[in-house]
User: Which sequence fits this backbone?
């Protein structure tokens, strides 16, 4: 992250640098929170499902490459999923979309969350719910935070006009 910041920082204005620091800290914290959620709450249930899927006479023994591939894929999926509030805030702050439009898109987001969860997780309902429900809750948290960011932004005086 430092190398990316060292490359980008010289080209940013001072107000952009002030905005970037909370975003970097917030996105890193949310990514790590997503990985921790996956590790502590999801893996036990997913591995129990996979173990229960095999007949009792067979001992599941996945090779280390398949295990690490699965674990890394799940960590990345949950880490990126927990970035949803940051994405919502950035889109609203940049003026790409309004909070009202995002609120109106809520049904599509819910369906999309369940589709993504069905594709990324193993084929059991519990692990799909453990990904889709946090996605929906994080989307709602992003809407609430974006509303606060917009309100704080509208209360600041406009410094771009001369007068």
Assistant:
């Amino acid at each position: 992250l430092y190398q990316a910041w060292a490359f980008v920082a010289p080209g940013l204005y001072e107000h952009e640098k002030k905005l970037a620091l909370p975003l970097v800290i917030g996105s890193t914290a949310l990514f790590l929170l997503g990985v921790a959620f996956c590790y502590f709450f999801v893996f036990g249930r997913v591995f129990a499902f996979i173990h229960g899927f095999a007949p009792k006479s067979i001992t599941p023994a996945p090779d280390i490459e398949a295990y690490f591939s699965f674990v890394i894929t799940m960590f990345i999926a949950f880490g990126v999923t927990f970035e949803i509030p940051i994405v919502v805030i950035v889109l609203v702050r940049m003026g790409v979309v309004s909070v009202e439009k995002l609120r109106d898109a809520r049904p599509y987001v819910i369906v999309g969350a369940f589709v993504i969860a069905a594709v990324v997780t193993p084929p059991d309902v519990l692990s799909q719910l453990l990904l889709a429900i946090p996605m929906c809750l994080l989307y709602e948290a992003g809407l609430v935070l974006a509303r606060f960011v917009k309100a704080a932004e509208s209360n600041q005086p406009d410094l771009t006009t001369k007068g």
Notes: The first helix runs from residue 2 to 8. The CA atoms of residues 43 and 71 lie 8 Å apart. The chain has one domain: 17-154.
